[in-house]
Design a protein that fits this description.
Layout lengths: L20 E5 L3 E6 L7 E7 L5 E8 L9 E5 L2 E6 L9 E9 L2 E8 L17 E5 L2 E6 L7 E8 L4 E9 L16 E5 L2 E6 L13 E5 L52 H7 L1 H16 L1
Antiparallel strand pairs: 1-2, 2-3, 3-4, 5-6, 6-7, 7-8, 9-10, 10-11, 11-12, 13-14, 14-15
Length: 293
Amino acid sequence: FVISNYITPAVPNDRMLHGFSVDFDRGDEMIVGSPKEGETGYGYIYKYGQDDRWNVLHKEPGQPHAEMGHAVAISGEHCAMTSHVGGPTNNGYVVTFKRVDNDTWTKGQILVGDVITVGHQGSAYYGHSVTMDGGVLAVGSPFEGATGAVYVYHWWDNVNEWRLHHKLTGPDSGDVNWYHNMFGWSLDMDNHILIVGSPGARTFDGVERAGSVFIFSNFIFDEPTTVAPTTSAPTVAPTTRAPTDTPAPTDVPTTDTPATTDAPTTTNPTSIATVNKPLIVLYMVCFFYSLMV
């Protein structure tokens, strides 16, 4: 290997940490983190041009008290850059981008973890690590709880957004461990196989903080459904009057309460006599009794 290019910030300053994180895709696109640049940090998207130079396509600043560019990832049509502190929850966040054309990326969702801290910086470190594989995104939050966590997202074109599908947590250490398991401290993914580093984990045979690597595969992602707008149906559907000479169908289910219709009905003497037989007998008894009296 020989050095073919050398990239520095346009205006370098002391301890900017440009290049703190890097990722590369397609042979001509690169994403670089500069988490100590300015007051908030920056993430850069570069593209290799016909002038044989790496040119900046986008420069993303962080939110207040952030360190944007702490971790970065790019794969196919998507890229992401993180700050492991600050953001909406004060525990770190991820900014996502989607390619519109060869030279244009649009800013998309801002993803955050479950831990919210008010009034000061939190310590979950959501966004400490990030990796992408096409439409799958994994974000590490190594100090969340006692074990750490990894959030696994999937991109869905039908809703045009990232959806959280899995939240993985490290094994319970069983006691207070100042170092935590740090599950999610490092991540990598390829062909939907996810590798999670947990350098503070206790081994299965009880060795403290020896560290472990966990391998996950066969993720199942349930595709979200979009619901088309609907109008409220009337509570009573309009009906039409049935013709008077139309017989009722014989296979229509009936209930104990007979249905009423506006059409006149005819009576069946046989059935009425059968139904009212006790009443007729009573009339006859009363009639003969009156004759005897």
